[in-house]
Amino acid sequence: MTASRRGGGPPRRSSRKHYNHYHQRGRAIEAMASRLLERKGYSVIRSVRYTQGVHLVAWCDWAPPLFVHVRRSKKSVTRPGEIATFWPGEVVTLRTIPRWDGMSVQLWIYAGRTFGWQFFEVFPSGIREVEGVVA
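The chain above was modelled as a monomer; its predicted structure follows.
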């Protein structure tokens, strides 16, 4: 005896396949960001994978800790105000992270080989673009 679906038709595709594809792409971007930080002399750990949380925590002897959230985009961000429009949940989460003595919370966006990396520091009251890998 076989189980049948109501309405017939072809079986549904599992969304798990799409989840794995995007999960692997996200991990690849995190690995690229981690390598950038390590080349600058930071020690880096990857946090538990959250959609809207901090992906990487980096530290070194000469600077306060750095909390990094990494995102991929198909186009570059032209102004910092677009960040809150494109990723509102991430911005709200990053703004609520407690800060101390110069600690930096950043959102890094990889817009492919054409545009490369863009770095933004997220403050409780706003966002500004950061030149270079770290503030």
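The chain is about 30% helix and 30% strand.
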